[in-house]
Every structure is written in structure tokens, then in C-alpha cells.
Amino acid sequence: MAKPIDMMKKVLIMAVICVVALTAKAQEPRPVVQLLTDSGTVKIELYNETPLHRDNFLKLVREGFYDGVLFHRVIFGFMIQTGDSLSKHAEPGKLYGDGRYETYKIPAEIRYSEIVHRRWTVAAAREDDAKNPERESSMCQFYIVYGKRFNDDMLDEQQERLDKETGGTVKMTPEVREIYKKYGGTPHLDGQYTVFGEVVEGKDVVDKIQRVETDANARPLGDIRILKATVVEP
Asked: At what angle do helices 174-182 and 152-166 cross, to 10 degrees?
């Protein structure tokens, strides 16, 4: 029978190996996807820390899934959303994004507070908690965060909102608060949606899209499409 101290050594060694493996994975070159839109080009770097979302997104891009889809939901000062394949043949004024046709979900990979909803990050859309308590992500719909910058009083209000929506399980650290004061974003979504990438080029395009005029359903009055999505790196 192995001595207790030997077992402890084995456990510690395995833990170190797991940490080293995860760190090495996170430090691998991040894939980059280019979205050619009719408003300009956006490049998104995908996080290795969220491998299920990364690999699913790359798969859909390579299959041409996103070619022709609309930015079907745009809210000024908040975010722009896309990824509904039914919007490729959009009817004027129709609401898109309900996800009824989607055939699978992606398990949540929420990495709070390591990864937060900072401005320019990319996150997966999903159904609300009542229908989706595990907070699994949509197979295809995603949004690019815009948000706003916050001061301490505003962040205190955001924390109160987070407490209500997460049962007090998501607490902003001093480091996270500094991110939202410096860069802006949407802190009230933290710990509830999977953030899996960030815009590295074309931030001006995102800014331009989030400013367009929309209807009562937040759909742009003039269609804005992803013309072509391609994997460009590595």
C-alpha cells in the first residue's frame, strides 16, 4: 500500500502537470478570423482559454456558415449581434435571432474574472437562465461588446445588479473595476455569458455599426452583412 506522503506527492505532481499544460495551451498562437462586412473589415482573435467555443467558431467559419448573415441586433452603446443563418435571406422588418433552428449548444466556458466583458471582446449569445440554467451558448450567434466607461459609483450600481442576477456569486475585483474604468464594456454580463475572443482590427467598423439607426426590435434599418468570414491566422 502506498504511503500517504507518496500519494500526496503524486497528487501534487499531477496538479502541477495540469497547470503547466493549461498555461502552455493558453500561450499557443491564437487563431484569427476575418469578417469582411459591407461596412468594413473586422479581425477577431480567438481565446485558447475557451477551446470549445474557439473550435466551434473556426468550424463554422470554414464551412461558410457566416457568409451573408446580418448583424440582426444592434444597440447603441451596448453591443452588435450576428450569426443567425436565417438572416441570409432576410425579410424586411422581420425579427431574427430566436435560435429555434439551432441543433446544438456549447457548454459554458465562463472564465471570470480572468476574462471579462471589456469593450471589443466577443461573446456567445444564449437563451436566458429560465430556459438555460447551465448557461450553454448558442451554436452560432455571437456579439461584439461596446458598452461604456464607468466610474466607481456606476460600478457600485453594476455590482448591485450583478448580485441580483447571479445571487451574489460574481464580485468585481479591484483589477476588473480598473478595466471597466479604463476601457469600458458591459460588466453586468460578467459570469453569465462566455467571452471567447476580441477584436484586434476594425474597431472603427464596430463603432460605426453600433451607431446605425435601428427599428423597435434593434434591427438596423439598412441591412448590414458579413459578406465573407475566413480564418487568416495562424
From this structure: 120
Answer whether residue 25 shows pLDDT above 90: no
Residues listed for the chain = 234
**What SS3 class is residue 106?**
strand
Strands 142-145 and 137-138: unpaired
Strands (E), the chain: 32-37, 40-46, 73-75, 79-82, 105-106, 121-124, 137-138, 142-145, 195-201, 226-233
The model carries a pTM of 0.89
Cα torsion 100, 101, 103, 104: sign = negative
Per-residue pLDDT, averaged over 199-210, amounts to 98
Three-state SS for 18? helix
pLDDT tens digits, one per residue of 70-115: 999 999 999 999 999 999 999 999 999 999 899 999 999 999 999 9
Question: How many Å apart are CA 164 and CA 183, to the nearest integer?
Answer: 24
C-alpha cell at 99: 435560435
| Residue pLDDT, tens place only, 141-177 | 999 999 999 999 999 999 999 999 999 999 999 999 9
Cβ atoms of 214 and 220 closer than 8 Å = yes
Amino acid making up residue 155: L
Where do runs of H (alpha helix) occur along the chain?
Answer: 4-26, 51-62, 152-166, 174-182, 203-209
Closest of 33, 162, 176 to residue 115, by C-alpha: 176
